[in-house]
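## tool: complex_structure
## caller: assistant
## args:
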Amino acid sequence: MYTAGVDIGAITAKAVIFGDGELLATPLILAGYDRAAAALQVLDQALAQAGLTREQIARLVATGYGRVQVPGADRTVTEITCHARGAHYLCPDVHTVIDIGGQDSKGIAVGAGGKVLDFVMNDKCAAGTGRFLEVMAHALEVDLADFGQLALSAPRRANISSTCTVFAESEVITHLATGRPRAEIVAGIHEAIAARVATMVGRVPVREVIVLTGGVAHNAGVARMLEEKLGHAIFVPEHAQLAGAIGAALIARE
Amino acid sequence: MQSPVSNLQYPISNLQSPLGFLTAYVPEELFHAAGFTPIFIFHTADAHGFARAHLPGFTCWVAGSALDQALAGRLDGLAGMALAQTCDTTQGLTDLWRRNVPHIPLFHFGMPLRLGSPSARAYLLAELQSLRERVQALAGRPIPDDALRESMALYNRTRALVRRLYARAALGDIAPPDLYGLVRAAFQMPKETYNQEIGSKMQELSPLPSCAPAPLLLLVGPALADPVLFDVIAQAGARVVGDLLDLGERYFAVDAVEHGDPLAALADRLLALVPTPTKHHPQRTRAAHLLSLVQERSADGVIFARQKFCEPHGFDYVQLAHALDQAGVPHLLVELEQASQAGQLRTRVEAFVEMLA
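## result:
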């Protein structure tokens, strides 16, 4: 049986297809403003990668902020439940999931089988999200893909005290005006986001193994500084950004 | 099919001598017996911005919206406004109202803080007597004891009706938007009309299908939160089986005794209610009450629906969450804005319901 999971996030749309317990397709595209079109497009890409037709997909589960806009979904499930299931698939020993997406960040306590035991969520503020990193990378003219490594290369970190993206940008401008090296400012930005997420995640019991999911998992600087703040090692699986879609496709099998 | 609750609208202009109130301790019967129609001033999602000139940005939006509506002239039909002593914001609103809304006379009612103290009842009786005299002055006529007893009997019938609603809710047999639509109407409609109409409205509500596997929830929070929350809970597939909302089940739980000294009956009723977070009663702690509700209703979880910037409920949350953690009861905190953000609220509530299912 083939099942699909489609995760329409704030910035990206992801799809996966499972067949015989194997991940057959893992496309990712920008979600854009038309979420329904993005869902169809990313699902088409997944079908092409797997060499399947839509009719061969027995069940489709949609997740993410745009979950209700996915045409033809058999069921919608929140990204919190899906990330827990997906992270459990990627790392069966997981106890805590930290999901940092484009629009929000979450801490999830995970039990047996990937069941959610508790969760916390930051959903009203851009600080502590992928959008924060995007805004800062743009302001400092650094490619987002290089942002994390640049942070880790700095010998010192600038102090970014603000917990608001807009005010933090003002602080960055102040540091630039005083001639502070760019890498140190970037390191300070990463430390600020890590501190904010660590504080939030601390409200659920943080237990190893800790898995980082969501698009920000690609940023090594955030992962490293989160380890520092939490005092625990963090595991970043290969398909960290697809954890929600994977969880959706797994739930579709039930 | 449209819910029979959806058309319950009672604008101020349709009411006889409407008198607004805020807080969960205003003795409505006293105003009713003087010929007024007490109605709770619920917040509106839109804001004119007039209150911003008088209130700091971290003021809870129930108080802020009431002042804003008054300054915008939307409460001009009110014969008066009543507030009981509860939180700091309410205290501040009292002074602001007197200075800035002088055409709507304000009644401040001194509700004691420690409800179990030996002097609480005497203090409350003196406050009720003082309020009676001030209300009589506004009405231009005395409030006879018999009129007060009649009002108490009328309000007792309303309370009995609302308790019937909650009895259905306890069985998981009423959708959350219908339950809270009817509870909210008890604060907005003349009690005479409410008592006549609500029984038939209850009959019109079709029984819900069997509860299983819908998770059963309790709600905790200040006023009656935001109608959007109740829609989101219903759409997530959960049922509400009870609450500890300031204007919810606790408000209607105790009747006033209809014989003897009516002021004493009003005082005893207020003292017998489960306290809101700004009050304290050593024999009626909120944590013990919430835990007993969880057990009695077999609730699967608790949602704290807190208005942003409501400090008393913020401090209360810490104690209640700790008690629930100790008892192993899952809970979720949602912070409500003046204008609903249904999408983000939905994700949290749905995830909580998925967790409980």
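## assistant note: The first helix of chain A runs from residue 35 to 50. The interface with chain B takes residues 65, 77-81, 104, 115-119, 121, 123-124 of chain A (CB under 8 Å). Handing back to user.
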